[in-house]
């Protein structure tokens, strides 16, 4: 049995001191939003509690579906790289970027260069290359194929949309087909929810229909996303049967907000092609904010 843990929207804090030059951009709106709202509810200790619980459950792999940082300043990107190294061997953690990781022009490239060991496929070059597409990537762990996709693009102020384009769609279909032919259980990671109506218009994913066609054509057994800071379950049409699309609360969300407290999902994968067995449990922060407790023993029963 393979155990896969899923967290998202880490939003590592606290927000560092930024220069006037760094704030003279879209970052000023995020800076104000952080001090008015986010800093009241996002706590680093919460993230530590989740990670300790994940280790206690002996997960084989950790999937992180984006938004490691807040404003994608150089200090934040380097801090996120250090945090990833603290998690351990990059072979056991897979990351895809979110809109906050590409907050302003140029931030995406800086983030991917700094986090490259966690966003590169098994057959990708060992060193970052400026002119090479990273996504989609393929990582094979036991009987599981992890396919990482990116929707991270810089957007104007007051927008947080993502983009899934035609080139990435074609490559993802080919990757999923090959993984299926190899008899692997296919997990797709993406930041924005690939579901129409799952979030507001200015936070939506552009390319939802294209992504749905990828799943129905290439095939998959599980899709993981973040972005909404909600614990959700949707379904997409698959080749043989519906494919679960699972979202998760922010990994740094403290109690007392309108959004659910921090949580992670733990998936158990077993079986073989044509007879896969998938189960999922959710563990979340308690009301006191000092422990992680079981919330749902079967997230697919929702």
Automatic annotation (TrEMBL):
CDD domains: MPP_superfamily
Gene3D superfamilies: 3.60.21.10
Keywords: Hydrolase, Iron, Metal-binding
Transmembrane segments: none
GO molecular function (one): metal ion binding
InterPro entries: Calcineurin-like_PHP, CNP_phosphodiesterase-III, Metallo-depent_PP-like
Calcineurin-like phosphoesterase domain segment(s): 3-229
UniProt similarity note: Belongs to the cyclic nucleotide phosphodiesterase class-III family.
Protein's name according to its UniProt entry: Calcineurin-like phosphoesterase domain-containing protein
């Amino acid at each position: 049995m393979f155990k896969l843990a899923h967290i998202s929207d880490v939003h590592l804090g606290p927000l560092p001191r930024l220069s006037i030059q760094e704030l003279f951009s879209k970052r000023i709106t995020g800076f104000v939003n952080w001090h008015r709202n986010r800093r009241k509810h996002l706590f680093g200790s919460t993230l530590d509690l989740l990670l300790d619980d994940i280790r206690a459950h002996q997960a084989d792999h950790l999937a992180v579906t984006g938004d490691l940082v807040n404003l994608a300043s150089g200090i934040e990107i380097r801090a996120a790289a250090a945090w990833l190294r603290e998690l351990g061997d990059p072979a056991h953690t897979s990351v895809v970027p979110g809109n906050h990781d590409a907050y302003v022009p140029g931030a995406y490239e800086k983030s991917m260069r700094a986090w490259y060991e966690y966003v590169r496929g098994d057959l990708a070059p060992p060193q970052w290359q400026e002119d090479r597409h990273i996504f989609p990537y393929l990582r094979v762990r036991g009987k599981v194929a992890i396919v990482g996709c990116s929707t991270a693009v810089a957007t104007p102020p007051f927008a947080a949309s993502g983009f899934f384009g035609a080139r990435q769609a074609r490559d993802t279909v080919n990757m999923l087909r090959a993984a299926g032919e190899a008899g692997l259980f296919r997990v797709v990671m993406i930041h924005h929810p690939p579901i129409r109506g799952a979030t507001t218009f200015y936070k939506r994913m552009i390319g939802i229909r294209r992504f749905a066609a990828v799943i129905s054509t290439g095939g998959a057994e599980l899709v993981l996303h973040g972005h909404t800071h909600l614990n959700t379950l949707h379904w997409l049409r698959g080749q043989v049967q519906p494919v679960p699309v699972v979202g998760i609360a922010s990994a740094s969300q403290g109690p007392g907000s309108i959004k659910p407290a921090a949580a992670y999902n733990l998936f158990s994968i077993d079986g073989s092609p044509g007879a896969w067995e998938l189960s999922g449990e959710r563990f979340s922060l308690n009301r006191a904010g000092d422990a992680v407790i079981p919330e749902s023993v079967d997230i697919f029963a929702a």
